[in-house]
Amino acid sequence: PGDLALTQNETVHAGAISRRAAERGAAVAFNPAPMDERVASYPLDAVRYLVLNEAEAAALAGTAEIETAFD
Q1: What does residue 13 show for φ and ψ, rounded to 5 degrees?
Q2: How large is the C-alpha radius of gyration of the chain?
Q3: What is the pLDDT along the chain (71 residues), one digit of tens a residue?
Q4: Of residues 70, 65, 68, 67, the one with CA closest to residue 50
Q5: How far apart, in Å, are the Cα atoms of 61 and each of 16, 21, 27, 30, 71?
Q6: Which residue, 9, 13, 22, 47, has fewest beta-carbon neighbours within 10 Å?
């Protein structure tokens, strides 16, 4: 219950690690840096804490407008 798995996009097997950690009850924190097309295939539903900068938030929101990324 107190375990945390922290990964980022550069972590080898980040998606599998995140899914497995969540299945075992750990909280998952994920930083999508460096942002690229792989992030779309990761199990973001397993992520409790998403660590983003504005550009990453805009990319995940599917917008080029940083100002609307958090709407």
Answers
A1: 65, 35
A2: 12
A3: 689 999 999 999 999 999 999 999 999 999 999 999 999 999 999 999 999 988 888 888 888 777 777 77
A4: 70
A5: 23, 25, 23, 16, 9
A6: 13
